[in-house]
Amino acid sequence: MLENIKQDKIRKLNNFKEAGINPYPAGPFEKEDLKKVLEKNIDIEAKVAGRIVLFRNMGNLTFMHLQDESARMQIVLNKKEFDGDYKLWVKNLDIGDFIFVEGKRFDTHKGEKSVLASKLTLLSKSILPMPDKHKALQDEDELFRKRYLDILFNEGTKEMIYRRSIFWNSIRNFLIERGFIEVETPVLETSAGGADAEPFETHHNALDIDVYLRISMGELWQKRLMVGGLEKTFEIGRQFRNEGMDAEHLQDYTQMEFYWAYANYEKGMELVEKMYKHVIEKTFGTLKFKIRGFDIDFSKKWEKYDYAEIIKKNTGVDVNTATIEEIEEKLKELGVEYDKKGFNITRAIDNLWKYCRKSISGPGFLVGVPLTVSPLAKKDVKNPNITQRFQPIIAGSELGNGYSELNDPIDQAERFAEQQKLRDEGDSEAQMHDRDFVEALEYGMPPTCGFGMSERVFSFLMDRSARECQIFPLMKPKKDDDLE
User: Minimal CA–CA distance to 376: which of 356, 352, 403?
Assistant: First the structure.
């Protein structure tokens, strides 16, 4: 059936070719947005272009609906007033084709704003039929695989793309207005650093070395920029983590990180709270949300949640003194599933926290995070067992991560050594030892606050899965059997 339709459309394409009409011209074509043409007075000249989404031939009159990015509008072909082979066009045009229309604005007798076409130019002949928008793309896998059709038929998906653009540009503008400069750091690294995550590995043929796709937005590189005398930097780009996929986590996603010399985590929290409020207001036009069962008002003063206190309140476990055996027993009691490969005290505490955070509405900041789960943050002056780290908590999840960055090269080298030991024992998320970065710190880095956030923030505010909020999420290729 589909193949028959395709062959019929190819026949029509060939009919245009035989008539001397190029079905895929290069242009340019100076079009006006349909939205603006709809506002024009009648009898004004109009030049529009777009995809045919409705087509009705009534003999000497043909009615089409044309759609471009801005709007949808009716186009009318009147055989008497059309400058071309009327029969050729109406017999061979289809829904899905792109055309360029020259004519005048007029209103039909029913008052519908239209363009009366005097000339048509074929821009692109479609050879597959457009799906029924009410029946097609109901399967989520197919919807993601053919995202272009999802965008075409679902206004909500198109709106999501616009909002996504506003989201990242409002972050960019917020930071630039406060003196930060945008930088670019390497995507390929010889040592994957700046986060606890498993990297993707590949081979660099020219240098004949194995390299990793970055797992952070240039954290250790941006800190080198602090060593070099820059004081406010940020980067927005893609990063990659070869880990599990769920509603909140992806392997290829957009991240922003900034680094601010001479600031600490307290100044960082002040800036981040202002930034989130600014970005959310710009993107969504409101600061009040209902997300995953929580009513959240971002306009209020954000709270602070102490890591150990929250865990003790919810589970009775004191993570400052508990053994790995005690925590593991509690995890089993709570029914928390966890990866036993490379399991250690760091992973034990982290899994316990992840269980507890689900009940926190936010907005607020997690503070008092233990040293063992923060290998890049400064120790707290009053309590060396915790770090100067903060994480925005919204609707039961951590949506960002910031520190008073560690700038003591000796302390950093010791923590890298401990992380490498955990990695050698099977913890694939533990950080690699980066000796070049330690050497940079030995030249001296000023006190610095760093903060990072990913597109998970955007997906939470949209109240959709992270995958839904990517324009083209990664899909497993279809097998040949599935394509038949």
Answer: 403
**Residue of 421, 418, 362 lying closest to 393 (CA atoms):** 362
Q: Which of 233, 249, 231, 232 is nearest to 241 (CA)?
A: 249
Q: Which residues pair with 135 in a beta bridge?
A: none
- The domains located in the chain, with CATH, are 2-124 (2.40.50.140), 152-302+362-462 (3.30.930.10)
Whole-number Å distance between alpha carbons of 140 and 437 = 44
Backbone Cα Rg of the chain:
29
Give the integer Cα–Cα distance in Å for 57 and 91.
9
List b or e across 6-30, with b for residues whose CB sees 16 or more CB atoms inside 10 angstroms.
eeebeebbeebeeeebebeeeeeee
Distance CA 133, CA 365 (A): 44
Q: How far apart are CA 235 and CA 339, in angstroms?
A: 32
What would the two tokens of residue 229 be?
Answer: 């005398």
Distances (CA, A) of 229 to 175, 225, 267: 18, 6, 20
List average pLDDT for each run of 10 residues in the chain, which is 484 residues long: 92 97 95 97 96 95 97 96 95 97 95 96 96 71 89 93 98 98 96 83 96 94 97 97 83 97 97 98 97 93 94 91 91 87 85 92 94 82 92 94 94 86 76 87 97 96 93 85 52
Specify whether the CB–CB gap between 134 and 140 falls below 8 A.
no
